[in-house]
């Protein structure tokens, strides 16, 4: 019975399968009919079911394999070395020191001005900069140590002088020398001092790299705090002092209102040191903002390893024949000018058109200065870009260039002679003094150019830098305003009682400031009665300028001026 049941079940299943197969066959026939119908109505379809009328069948779509995930985060130049140093104690300390320096810079210099503030701040900056760089393995070079001498002289020149033009020159030189000195002291430049490659390394280390790592001060502070600096006594004292500032301000304000004597004492103290809530807030904000850049600059200098020495080669391929032709033409013009100068200025010939020597001197001085500037550019071009043989210029170029420089020496002498003649008639001024000083620097640099022509191993850039620094240090050691006042007063006093009495500009004497007080007082004692009121007015103006100064912008000559101007109100 069971066998019969199994046989019936298998028959039923076979029948069901045959029925499903028959249904599939019917559906396939129907699909084929639909395809044929569509082909007849819409056109032909290929084997992929896509319409492609009159063309080959479309190839089957092959998807691209997925790309492997290979994202790499952006990595800054020398990131590992710089960020690896951020976690050190020295990096955290230099961030705090730069913050304090920034606050003092704002309070002393920005609100004080040029004077004693500059050498004080420069000494403070180098005290912690040298300490910080001394922790580096690489020892500073001898040249970087020698650069500290002109930097110190230029910074202390602000205390020895009160001339704004000298201040401007000092600022320009300090902005060049300080980054250059720190770059070589930290051994972040592998090239020699005063080379093109050294200048390039200094610009990169001072401008480009610090702006790329402005996050390093924040990383230094955060990492030190996470490493347990919260438990250090110094940090706790710093936080306590920071928290006490607003409380101290509230207490002082309340006590000043409560007691008039205490309030008078506080007001006099505030007037003396020139502080207020607004200035304190500005000093703190400026200090922290400036500390971001200065600390980043020092950290990147400290963390960077010494690079390999690189050379900066200039392709000197300019044809010597062309240069010689140009120099021949220029020398002919220069020789004609030299002949005229020897005739009119040096041999005493009569000037054309009835001109006086002072008018003749005034007429062409600035044009001669323009000629000197163009000549310097021509000399530099010849020394750098003219094709050389075994490091030497062609003899024709060397001879013509030497003659060209010799003619320019006559131009220099002519310019100085014109200026001295003009000063003899119209007195000395700051502009005339500084222009003459600059022409002397040009003349000394031309001597170095002649040496370079005939001795290729001579280091002309170093010579020019040394000459410039020595001349600038010299003009800082003498008080320019005092020299000008003494000269003008001496010329006026000597002209009294002569056939050609001179005039003197008392307003210009007053503008020279307290440094001219000694000469102005001597003028008051020896001048003619007609100009005595103007001289006394100049003394009063100098006294007002001295009274408006503070210890921040004072110079050493203000001490003598305060004694001289003490009794100016008693003069009759």
Q: Tell me the number of structural domains.
A: 4
Secondary-structure-derived class = mainly alpha
Spatial extent as radius of gyration? 41 Å
- List the helices and strands in order: HHHHHHHHHHHHHHHHHHHHHHH
Global outline:
flat
Instruction: Please estimate the helix content.
Output: over 70%
Q: Which strand-content bin applies to the residues?
A: under 5%
Total beta strands: 0
**Poorly predicted runs:** 1-18, 20-24, 26-46
Short summary of the structure?
This protein has helices at 2-42, 79-86, 89-110, 117-134, 142-146, 148-160, 164-185, 196-212, 216-226, 233-258, 260-273, 277-303, 320-346, 357-363, 365-385, 395-426, 430-454, 460-477, 480-495, 506-511, 517-526, 532-547, 557-564.
Keywords:
572 residues; 4 domains; mainly alpha
Describe the structure.
The protein has 572 residues and is mostly helical. It folds into four domains: 41 residues; 225 residues, no CATH class; 158 residues, no CATH class; 91 residues, no CATH class. Helix content is 72%, strand content 0%. It is flat and about 95 Å long.
């Amino acid at each position: 019975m069971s066998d019969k049941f199994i046989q019936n079940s298998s028959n039923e299943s076979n029948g069901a399968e045959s029925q499903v197969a028959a249904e599939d066959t019917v559906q396939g026939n129907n699909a084929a009919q639909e395809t044929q119908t569509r082909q007849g109505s819409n056109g032909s379809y290929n084997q992929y079911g896509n319409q492609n009328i009159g063309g080959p069948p479309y190839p089957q779509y092959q998807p691209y394999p997925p790309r492997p995930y290979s994202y790499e985060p952006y990595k800054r130049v020398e990131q590992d070395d710089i960020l690896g140093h951020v976690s050190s104690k020295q990096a955290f300390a230099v961030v705090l020191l730069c913050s304090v320096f920034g606050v003092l810079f704002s309070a002393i210099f920005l609100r004080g001005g040029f004077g004693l503030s500059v050498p004080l701040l420069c000494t403070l900056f180098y005290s912690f900069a040298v300490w910080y760089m001394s922790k580096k393995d690489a020892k500073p070079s001898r040249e970087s140590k020698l650069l500290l001498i002109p930097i110190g002289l230029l910074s202390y020149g602000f205390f020895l002088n009160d001339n704004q033009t000298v201040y401007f020159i000092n600022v320009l030189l300090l902005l060049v020398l300080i980054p250059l000195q720190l770059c070589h002291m930290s051994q972040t430049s592998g090239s020699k001092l005063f080379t093109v490659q050294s200048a390039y390394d200094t610009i990169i280390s001072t401008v480009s790299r610090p702006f790329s790592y402005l996050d390093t001060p924040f990383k230094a502070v955060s990492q030190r705090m996470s490493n347990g600096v919260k438990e250090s006594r110094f940090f706790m004292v710093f936080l306590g002092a920071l928290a006490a500032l607003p409380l101290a301000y509230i207490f002082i304000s309340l006590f000043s209102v409560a007691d008039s004597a205490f309030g008078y004492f506080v007001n006099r103290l505030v007037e003396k040191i020139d502080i207020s809530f607004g200035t304190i807030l500005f000093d703190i904000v400026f200090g922290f903002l400036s500390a971001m850049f200065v600390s980043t600059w020092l950290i990147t200098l400290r963390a960077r390893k010494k690079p390999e020495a690189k050379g900066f080669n200039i392709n000197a391929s300019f044809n010597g024949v062309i240069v010689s032709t140009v120099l021949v033409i220029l020398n002919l013009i220069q020789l004609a000018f030299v002949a005229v100068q020897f005739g009119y200025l040096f041999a005493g010939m009569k000037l054309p058109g009835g001109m006086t020597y002072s008018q003749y001197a005034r007429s062409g001085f600035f044009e001669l200065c323009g000629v000197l500037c163009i000549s310097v550019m021509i000399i530099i071009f010849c020394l750098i870009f003219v094709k050389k043989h075994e490091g030497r210029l062609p003899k024709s170029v060397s001879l013509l260039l030497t003659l060209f420089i010799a003619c320019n020496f006559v131009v220099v002498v002519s310019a100085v002679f014109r200026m001295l003649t003009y000063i003899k008639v119209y007195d000395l001024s700051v502009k005339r003094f500084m222009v003459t000083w600059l022409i002397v620097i040009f003349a000394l640099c031309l001597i170095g150019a002649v040496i370079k022509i005939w001795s290729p191993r001579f280091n002309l850039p170093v010579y020019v830098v040394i000459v410039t620094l020595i001349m600038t240090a010299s003009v800082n050691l003498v008080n320019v305003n005092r020299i000008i006042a003494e000269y003008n007063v001496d010329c006026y006093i000597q002209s009294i009682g002569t056939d050609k009495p001179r005039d003197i500009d008392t307003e210009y004497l007053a503008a020279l400031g307290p440094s001219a007080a000694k000469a102005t007082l001597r003028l008051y004692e020896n001048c003619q009665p007609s100009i005595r009121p103007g001289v006394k007015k100049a003394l009063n103006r100098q006294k007002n300028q001295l009274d408006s100064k503070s210890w921040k912008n004072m110079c050493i000559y203000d001490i003598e001026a305060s004694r001289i101007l003490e009794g100016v109100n008693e003069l009759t």
